[in-house]
Automatic annotation (TrEMBL):
It comes from Pricia antarctica. It catalyses: succinate + ATP + CoA = succinyl-CoA + ADP + phosphate; GTP + succinate + CoA = succinyl-CoA + GDP + phosphate. SUPFAM superfamilies: NAD(P)-binding Rossmann-fold domains, Succinyl-CoA synthetase domains. The lineage of its organism: Bacteria, Pseudomonadati, Bacteroidota, Flavobacteriia, Flavobacteriales. Substrate binds at Y159. Belongs to the succinate/malate CoA ligase alpha subunit family. GO terms for molecular function: nucleotide binding; succinate-CoA ligase (ADP-forming) activity; succinate-CoA ligase (GDP-forming) activity. This is Succinate--CoA ligase [ADP-forming] subunit alpha. Succinyl-CoA synthetase functions in the citric acid cycle (TCA), coupling the hydrolysis of succinyl-CoA to the synthesis of either ATP or GTP and thus represents the only step of substrate-level phosphorylation in the TCA. The alpha subunit of the enzyme binds the substrates coenzyme A and phosphate, while succinate binding and nucleotide specificity is provided by the beta subunit.
Amino acid sequence: MSVLVNKDSKIIVQGFTGSEGTFHAEQMIEYGTQVVGGVTPGKGGQEHLGRPVFNTVAEAVEKVGADTSIIFVPPAFAADAIMEAANAGIKVIITITEGIPIADMVKAADYIKHRDCRLIGPNCPGVITPGEAKVGIMPGFVFKKGTVGIVSKSGTLTYEAADQVVRQGLGITTAIGIGGDPIIGTTTKDAVELLINDPETEAVVMIGEIGGQLEADAAKWYKASGSKKPIIGFIAGETAPAGRTMGHAGAIVGGSDDTAQAKKKIMREHGIHVVDSPAEIGLKVKEVMGK
């Protein structure tokens, strides 16, 4: 089992022929991901990287049965690309684009609420199920198959956590980079819930950061669920000054509950094993899993 993407996922790349889309599509194909084509308006009928190019997502769904999309469309057009994918019946929409205007994302988030699909991102590294599908920009070689799920707001810390888990002789079921923007599709709680409910995932690493309530919501859901699967948590941004955006657009301390200290306290109170440094993630996972 895995969540969101696997060897059967049929992936298209929106923004396929652009430099970012081309570079990462090549890496995904090399990894063994089933990339069935791409979309670049006006270039339909061409071939790129040995795959067909379509003018619209609807055409890609009809012609090659695409069910998953990864978006490398520039910020000004990315929200439209999300809505187009949702409208065409794509089930998993992974948006890598950073800097999408918030007003655009408000519209896109509302639009997809009424459709049968799941949005990951924007401003995220994507999703990987090791050995099956890499739908994102992460370095595939870091991830080995195993029984630990990863949920992270930070791309770099996703790779760091995976590397540490693997160094402890363990591996990953699926790693989900949810993105660090103020408005994202799949929240920390949503992603944690997917992994807790996955029969092959035995433990979850949850990496959050300052700003917002996502980690607190996930912690409260976890305790209420009664799950016996352990969660290992880390919050980035301990030394960040209040009121200043740090790295991610959503990483800004607005009130006393948004600080790293407050989040860690809430997580501990709800049964999560919290580490104070990302360097401790791998060892803590091994310890709590009793491996």
